[in-house]
Amino acid sequence: MSENGATAPGEDPSDQFIGGDNDEGPRVEFYGGRGMSAFPIAFFIVWAIIQTALWRIGDTGGLIVGILVGLILGMFFVRGNWKTYANTIFEGMTQPVAVTAIVAWIWAGMFAQLLQDGGFVGGLVWLADTAGVGATLFPAITFVLAAVFTTGIGTGYGASVAFVGLFFPAGILLGANPVLLFGAILSGAIFGDNLAPVSDTTIVSAVTQDADIGGVVASRFKYIIIAAAVAFVGYIVAGSSMDGLEISGEAQTIFLESSEAIGLVHVIPMLAVIGAAVAGRHIVEAISWGIVIAIAFNLIFGLASLGDIVMFNAPSDAPFAGPLESLPVLTVVDSADAVGVTGSLMSGVSGFFELSILVLLIIGAAQIMIRGGAFEVLLNWSLENLATNVRNAELTMVATAALINSIITINTAAEVAIGPYISKIGERFNLNGYRRANILDGQTAAMGYIFPWSGGVLAGYGAMQNLPGEYEWLDQAMLVTPIDVVPFVFQGWLLVAVFVIAALTGFGREYVTDRETEEVARV
Amino acid sequence: MSVFDKYLAGWRLRTSRPSFEVGSEVDIFIAESNGTSGRAYVGDTELIIEGAGPETIEKQVRVRVTEFDETTASGRGEFVEVVGESSYAE
Asked: Which is nearest to A488 in space by CA: A190, A44, A42?
C-alpha cells in the first residue's frame, strides 16, 4: 500500500474497495424469500409448457386461466398485507408498454384483414406462381420481406400479425412447410424489431444506455446482418428438406385460378404504412393511413364491398332494422345465431381480445417478480458472481437479458426492467453505450419471438386462428402449434449466438475510451 | 463521424486489455473506491485513480494517466473532474 492510502497496481485490494450500492428493499415480501415472487410467472410458464407442448392445446383462454391461478396461488405466499400484492398487479397491467403492444396488434389485425379480404394473398400467390418461386424459396423470401416490412414500421408484433394473415396461407398453398414459414415470419419480425429506428425496443435500448438512436442502429447492423445472412441460407436449406402439407389438388387449382394480380395493389397501403412510420408518424397514425387506403382500394377496384368491411346483422324484430335494410352495411337475419357485427374490421380485431387480457395479466405477474425482489436477486447474484472480467461480464449481460426476455412476454417491458442492470454491469467495465444497447436489444428482440408465451408468437398465433374461416382449403390441423416453431426461429437463435461469440472474441466491443455515444458527447 | 463510418465502426476483435498512453486524458467510470483512491476497469485493464473518492463511484470522471504497464494491463492516473453520471442513476 502506498503512502497516501492508494493501492499499487498489481496488489489485490478487493477488500478495501467498495462499490456502489443501489439495492432498494422489495416492496412485496414473500414467505420463502424474494425468489418466491417469481412464483406466479413460474407457475404460468410450467402451465403453458404442459398445455401447449405436452398436450398440444393452443387455446389462449386456457393460458389466461393458468396465469390467473398462478396469481391467486402466489398471493398465499405474501407476507403481510395482500393489498400491496393486488396493487402491484395493477401497477404492472397499467404500464404503457403493455397497452402499446395491444394497440399494435389490434391495428395491424384490422389492416392485415382488409388486405386479406382484398385479395392480397391471391396476388402474392399469383406473383410467386408467375415468378416461379416455389415451396423451397418461399420461406426465405418471406423472411426477407418480413424483415424489410418490420424495419419500416418498427413493430414486430404488427408485422407478425400482418404476415401470418397474408404470407402464411399463400406459402402453405404453394407447398411450403407451415412451421418453417411461421419461423421465417417471426425471424423477419426479430430483424426489424432489432434494427428499426422507430421500434420501441430500439428506442428503449438507446435511452436506457444513454446512447443516440442513429448511432445505436448503425453499430448494431453488423450483428444483425451476420445472423440474417446465415438465417437466410438456413431457410433455403430447410425449405428444400422440409415438406409442405397436402392440399387437395382441386382446392389448390381453384385457388390458383382465382388468384389475380389485382390483389397486389395492396402493396401500396403497405408502402404507405412504412413511409408514414419512417417519416416519424406514430404507429397508430401510420397503420390508420394503411387502413384508409386499403378500404379505398377495396371499394374502388371492387375487391371487397362495404358490407365485407363492416356488416351489421340485425334480428328481424329490431325496430329500425326493416326500414333501413337497403343500407349496404345492414342485413336482417332470421336466425338468432347470425346476429352480430361481421366484416374485415371485426374479424381483424377479434383474434386479439383474449390475447390482450392474457398479456396484461402476465405483465402484472412480471411486476410482482420485479417488486418482490426475485428479479434483483438474480441480477445481483449474476453481477457479483459471474461478471468477474469483461468477457464474463458481456456473457452475463447476454444471458440475463435473454433469460428475462424469455420470461416476460412483452419484450419491451422486459427491456425496460433489465436496462439499468445492463448499464450497471457494462459501465463497470467501461463498455460504451452502443455496445451495451446492442447486447441488450439483441436478446430482447430475439427472445420476444421464440417461445409459446412470447408476445410475437402469441400475436402470430392469434392471427392464425382466423385463417381456417377464411379459406375453404385451410383447416385447423394445418396451423402451427406454437411450441413447434421454437427451433425454427433462426434469426432469434443466431442473433443470440452472434452475441455469445462477440462476447468471447471481442467482436464489435467498444469501450467508452474508444468512442463516446453522441448524447453523452453533447453533455 | 459520417453515417457510413458509423456502420463500419466496430468490425474488429477488440482486446479485453486496452492500453493507455502516459499523459493522455480519458473519461471513464469509477467502479470502486477505498476512500482516497478509486479503481476503474476498462475491459480487464485496471487503473488506480488517485483522488477519486467514494463520491465518484459509478460516475464518469476525467483521468490523466500517469503510469501504465502494458504487460500487466494496469496503471495509475490522477483524478481531474467528474464529467458524467451513470446512465442508470435516478
From this structure: A190
Residue B65 lies in a domain: yes
Query: Which structural domain, as residue segments, surrounds residue B65?
Result: 28-84
Q: What is the pLDDT along chain A (523 residues), one digit of tens a residue?
A: 333 333 333 343 334 555 554 444 458 999 999 999 999 989 998 898 888 777 877 677 898 999 999 999 999 999 988 999 999 999 989 877 778 778 887 888 899 889 988 988 888 888 888 888 888 999 999 999 999 989 888 888 889 999 999 999 999 988 999 999 999 999 999 999 999 887 888 988 988 898 888 889 999 999 999 999 999 999 999 999 998 887 767 777 777 777 788 989 999 998 898 888 777 788 788 889 999 999 999 999 999 999 999 999 999 899 888 889 899 999 999 998 999 999 999 988 887 788 889 888 988 998 899 899 888 888 888 888 898 999 999 999 999 999 988 887 788 878 888 888 898 899 999 999 999 999 999 999 999 999 988 889 989 998 998 899 888 888 888 999 899 999 999 999 999 999 999 999 999 999 999 988 875 544 3
Residues B29, A505: C-beta atoms closer than 8 Å: no
| B3 within a domain of the structure (yes/no) | no
Chain A nearest C-alpha distance from B72 (Å): 8
Kindly determine whether residue B36 and residue A4, on different chains, have CB atoms separated by under 8 Å: yes
Which of A15, A195, A397, A429 would best serve as a mutation to test chain B binding (most B beta carbons within 10 A)? A429
Verify whether the Cβ–Cβ distance B88 to A18 is below 8 Å.
no
A273, A267 in Cβ contact below 8 A? no
Helix (H) or strand (E) holding A78: strand A78-79
Instruction: List strand residue ranges (DSSP E) for A338-456, in order.
Output: 340-342
CA–CA separation, A273 and A269 (whole Å): 6
Q: What angle do CA A404, A409, A415 make, to 5 degrees?
A: 45
d(CA A83, CA A89): 10
> What's the alpha-carbon Rg for chain B, to the nearest Å?
14
Q: Are the C-beta atoms of B13 and B40 separated by less than 8 Å?
A: no
**How many Å apart are CA A312 and CA A52, to the nearest integer?**
36
Cell of B27: 473519461
- Site of grid cell 486524458: B25
A252 and A223 Cβ atoms separated by less than 8 Å: no
Q: How many domains does chain B have?
A: 1
**Distance, C-alpha A76 to centroid of its chain:** 32
Is residue B16 included in any domain, yes or no? no
Q: Are strands A330-333 and A311-315 parallel, antiparallel or unpaired?
A: parallel
